[in-house]
């Protein structure tokens, strides 16, 4: 454990009571096959200053499956050291063997985390009862808050809304990252659970926020994190016309960032910005040359949008934004309040 973690060790204390806003699952920078911790710390610091609400380390976007346990700890400690108490950090944990996942989460009990992001067991396709018992075993081994991660395209199994609602009776379970691609399931989670529901499908971000979602864990957000923070702010304040115009400007890049396996396109975009090397670990490979050419073209107008900072949250920004998008794309503003409000 690094000095920051040891000085801020905790147990049975929840740093983040609610998970709202824009959380960014960081890529893991590599240099010649090894972790590039300097680049990781700089990326984390840049993201912390962008107006987002939190970071995720060792998620799918972070190529966690290709890192060993030592690298997981090194990367987490480096990010915690870089952002300090400025920004909450969630640690991703995966695995199909409940015993192994329990052992892993216990390693993080003394880290100052906002929580753990944990997906359903992959490949083995357990029953819903098996999923419940898996997560209950994990909750019994940690004092950290837990964010459920429903990503059936990767795990092969759904965490159904009824299962999430059952788990939510335990206060360890505070949120769910919903990446099942179904707005109906997203709505059911909002209606049937007490969890904060975060969008995990970037193309559905505006729709999920507009229907009452509490935010997102967005891989694409690290390319222009300020725009995602601005989008969240606009929706929460009922400025749906500006939010729609902004999202339409963002959508071409979002589509390209998921046109090839994640995180290759995100790393390609960050490499174009000079933030990381365009390097992944096998079996992941860099984005194709054709994909990179299309992405570079799409990034150019996105990078021309005005930069938005946390200090702009109380300022009207539609004027400078809407000058850059077609008036025909502006939707009428309709207020739609969040289904609930956490103070």
Can you walk me through this structure?
- With 343 residues, this protein is α/β, with parallel strands linked by helices.
- It has 14 helices and ten strands.
- The chain has helices spanning 3-7, 37-48, 69-83, 98-106, 128-139, 152-155, 161-167, 183-192, 205-210, 225-236, 240-257, 264-272, 289-303, 318-322, and strands spanning 21-25, 30-31, 34-35, 54-57, 89-93, 115-119, 146-150, 173-178, 196-199, 215-217.
- Helix 11 packs antiparallel against helix 13.
- The longest helix is centred in the last third of the chain and has 18 residues, at 240-257.
Descriptive terms for the model:
alpha/beta; eight-stranded parallel β-barrel; two-stranded antiparallel sheet; globular; disordered C terminus
Topology of helices and strands:
Blueprint: H1 3-7, E1 21-25, E2 30-31, E3 34-35, H2 37-48, E4 54-57, H3 69-83, E5 89-93, H4 98-106, E6 115-119, H5 128-139, E7 146-150, H6 152-155, H7 161-167, E8 173-178, H8 183-192, E9 196-199, H9 205-210, E10 215-217, H10 225-236, H11 240-257, H12 264-272, H13 289-303, H14 318-322
Parallel strand pairs: 1-4, 1-10, 4-5, 5-6, 6-7, 7-8, 8-9, 9-10
Antiparallel strand pairs: 2-3
Brief characterization of the structure:
The chain has 343 residues and is an alpha/beta fold.
- Assembly level: single chain
| Residue-averaged pLDDT | 88
Number of helices: 14
Give the termini separation. Answer: 33 Å
For the largest beta sheet, what order do the strands appear in spatially?
1-4-5-6-7-8-9-10
- Principal-axes geometry comes out as globular
Query: Which stretches are low in confidence, meaning pLDDT under 50 for 5 or more residues running?
Result: 1-15, 314-343
- What is the strand content? 5-15%
Main sheet?
8 strands, parallel, barrel
The ordered H/E elements are: HEEEHEHEHEHEHHEHEHEHHHHH
Estimated structural class: alpha/beta
In total, how many beta strands? 10
Rg computed from alpha carbons, rounded to a whole number of angstroms: 19 Å
> Percent range for helical residues?
40-55%
């Amino acid at each position: 454990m690094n000095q920051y973690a040891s000085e801020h060790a905790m147990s049975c204390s929840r740093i983040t009571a609610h998970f709202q806003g824009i959380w960014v699952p960081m890529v893991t920078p590599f240099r010649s096959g090894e972790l590039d911790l300097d680049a990781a710390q700089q990326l984390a610091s840049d993201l912390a200053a962008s107006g987002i609400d939190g970071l995720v380390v060792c998620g799918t976007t972070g190529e966690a499956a290709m890192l060993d346990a030592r690298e997981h700890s090194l990367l987490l400690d480096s990010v915690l050291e870089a952002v300090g108490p400025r920004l909450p950090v969630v640690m991703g944990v995966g695995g199909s063997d409940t015993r192994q996942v329990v052992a892993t989460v216990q390693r993080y009990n003394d880290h100052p985390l906002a929580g753990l992001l944990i997906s359903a067991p992959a490949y083995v396709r357990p029953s819903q009862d098996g999923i419940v018992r898996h997560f209950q075993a994990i909750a019994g081994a940690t004092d950290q808050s837990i964010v459920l991660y429903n990503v059936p395209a990767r795990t092969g199994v759904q965490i159904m809304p009824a299962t999430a609602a059952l788990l939510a009776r335990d206060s360890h379970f505070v949120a769910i990252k919903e990446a099942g691609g179904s707005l109906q399931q997203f709505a059911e989670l909002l209606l049937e659970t007490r969890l904060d529901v975060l969008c995990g499908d970037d193309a559905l971000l505006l729709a999920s926020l507009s229907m009452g979602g509490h935010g997102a864990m967005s891989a694409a957000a690290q390319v222009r994190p300020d725009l995602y923070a601005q989008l969240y702010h606009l929706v929460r304040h009922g400025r749906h016309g500006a939010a729609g115009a902004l999202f339409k400007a963002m959508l071409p890049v979002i589509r390209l960032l998921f046109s090839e396996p994640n995180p290759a396109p995100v790393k390609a975009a960050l490499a174009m910005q000079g933030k990381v090397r365009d390097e992944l670990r096998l079996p992941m490979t860099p984005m194709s040359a054709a994909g990179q050419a299309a992405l570079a073209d799409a990034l150019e107008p996105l990078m021309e949008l005005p930069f938005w900072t946390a200090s702009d949250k109380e300022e009207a920004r539609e004027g400078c934004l809407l000058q850059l998008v077609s008036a025909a794309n502006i939707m009428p503003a309709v207020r739609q309040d969040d289904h609930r409000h956490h103070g």
